Amino acid sequence: MAESVELPGRLAILPFRNKVLLPGAIIRIRCTSPSSVKLVEQELWQREEKGIIGILPVRDAAVEAPSAGSTSSAGGGTNLGERSSKTQEETSDSHKLGGKNQQEVIHWHNRGVAARALHLSRGVEKPSGRVTYIVVLEGLCRFSVQELSTRGTYYTARITPLEMAKAEMDQVEQDPDFVALSRQFKATAMELISVLEQKQKTGGRTKVLLETVPVHKLADIFVASFEINFEEQLCMLDSVDVKVRLSKATELVDRHLQSIRVAEKITQKVEGQLSKSQKEFLLRQQMRAIKEELGDNDDEEDDVAALERKMQDAGMPANIWKHAQRELRRLKKMQPQQPGYNSSRVYLELLADLPWQTASEERELDLKAAKERLDIDHYGLAKVKKRIIEYLAVRKLKPDARGPVLCFVGPPGVGKTSLASSIAAALGRKFIRISLGGVKDEADIRGHRRTYIGSMPGRLIDGLKRVGVCNPVMLLDEIDKTGSDVRGDPASALLEVLDPEQNKTFNDHYLNLPFDLSKVIFVATANRVQPIPPALLDRMEVIELPGYTPEEKLRIAMRHLLPRVLDQHGLSFDFLQIPEAMVKLVIQRYTREAGVRNLERNLAALARAAAVRVAERDHAVPLTKDVQRLDSPLLDGRLADEAEVEMEVIPIGVDNHDISNAFRVASPFIVDETMLEKVLGPPKYDDKETAERVATPGVSVGLVWTAFGGEVQFVEATAMGGKGELHLTGQLGDVIKESAQIALTWVRARATELKLTTAVESNLLEGRDVHIHFPAGAVPKDGPSAGVTLVTSLVSLFSQRRVRADTAMTGEMTLRGLVLPVGGVKDKVLAAHRYGIKRVILPERNFKDLAEVPAAVLSSLEILLAKRMEDVLEQAFEGGCPWRQHSKL
Ligand code: ADP
Hints:
The chain is α/β, with parallel strands linked by helices. The protein has 32 helices and 26 strands.
């Protein structure tokens, strides 16, 4: 126990933020900040004798005193910090705690406690090599600060001790007030000790303290042992007068005692309740076991009752309700273990879940807002948007109009689905997408009859159950991908769905009841029109969405995709910036698609890479650096075994700057070419591809139309020794095979004119076979539009002259050499543009289709129109067609 000590006139000061060390208390602290480490090193570690330092509480600027009176009531404590802030200019700048970036004034308390180090240990942190100290301090006596100044990195203070002299103390002890107060304090303290001993079943060592230690010191020791708030700690520190100190300590000890008692009561109550609920649980378990044994099952009964309630609330039409009740009665008669019970239940659940009446409230359609919405969500597509607005306008004027079903046709990723969802948003209706890709079984649309094992409702009814309203916008996605086989024809079921006459009473086989689909707004999407059965096509209005030009893609990426991708990855432009030039490179080198789906994927890959970096950097921010809360000192510990109290010293004025630096958002990542390659890999496409592939005679560049939009298709021909046969490879359909035959015949017939053979009578295929291959051999190909490309490739082969690498062509050819028009011109021209092709040969009669091609694309291409095959050859070869060249000579 601390005996009277002689304090020096000046003490090194260790600040305690929002924490007070009282005399007699023992505390263990870890010093990590440079200033506190320096202080410990110089004042305690390097000294021979046991050093004494001053512990001075400081009030964090964030912790404002609740009232002026609370700190000064007992001993008239004032705040030194406020005083020092006035004299800041004369004193050192260390008074401005927290550095330049922290403007708040930190309030030093003007009273502290001198403390002696009982134990010191030094540690070196790895790998930083930072020195830290663990110090066990014992509070000795109070002092008041006369003047605060700095020594190097830490503070020192000129102090006056506040302890009473022995003679003074003897005099106070005679005071009857003091005697009464100390008796009262001891009684309360005794009571507390008894309660704690009872709780912890520890021996009476602490009682000895009461007899041996002077009562005014006991007051401090007791109060230091349990948790009280900072204001009360300060008040205790300021209680220099022993009578004031005793009465304050009695009050605090008593309060602590009461709180222990209340806590005990609560614990007892909770324990009682726990055992009660445990008992109940056991009983319930037993009850359930008995019921199971007897075959009773209350749970099932409850479930059926709940199902019945749900059915009542479902708003079924009268005839459906009658049917449902019949089914329910059957269910009630069944035992849960009986076959058919479950299927009957699942069926009734479906009836209860279907939105028979529930509809999303259709708000008054605001065409202007709808137009704005379409514009916000989608770039360009002016024609498509106009058509959608017309469609919405008709619906507004005549809500039950039986207009055609809109069908968006175009390659993947051009915005078909998102346009449909914008329509739903504009109408204020829910949106549901039903995927029809690969549906070959009629039952997928219409459901299986319930007699089948594992029968289910069809996709439409299932979709309605999921969406929960009877008037959603339903997107029939990839309607061109439905096929028919032995299991029926899904298209005919769809026909019923889309026919306003029939869909009022749509009959799902599983449901076996009519469901009214007339309130649903159907929108369909398809990649191509051709595969859609004509009857179905007849019900729909096709709106074509061609692919985008690179410039359009760039705009879409910058305005729509990038902000959305960043948002999806929890990033913003503050963290990641992808400059326009880089997006352009992604478009040119990493995507060659008609839509923007891969582009979006690639941007997402960049965002993911950036997110990892940002997340890693966040991790490095030392959020909890040296800011640990102080542990609460426990009376039990201090009194029973003199246990040390662990506490962290909060560094002041040294590390704050570092912390705020770490918090500051660093500059954003700006994607450059190196990062692009690192994340997306080496470029996938370049403009040189065509030139490389047509480097040998016999290869020509065609334009074809696939489900993914327009594509460039190379045709390769080669000749070898043989018997004059034609070999074709590349998964070709009948039409394209015939085109190849026609092409070969045409070339053979004109072999002499084209100067491919010298002798008039000689056979071009004499002693040799021809092999034509369409690369990308795994993709099936068909259609007549490769005619001109085939001829060009054969002429190139036989004349051994290379086809121009910058020229692509499309066109059907007749046996007599006429070039016939083909479909998909717009997509094909866009594809040529994407591949960096400069010249496109088209059938003359396709000239009108060029009106649909964006002007920006047209202006960068040379369009050459051909009427006959000779025109094509003239343009396909450098310097014109072989025979013309000959005639020029
Ligand atoms: P689809 O249904 O045609 O396959 P999606 O509707 O799923 O394509 O579109 C793919 C992505 O591209 C979506 O995120 C969509 O928002 C975006 N997108 C497509 N076209 C545009 C456009 N014109 N403006 C803005 N975003 C677009």
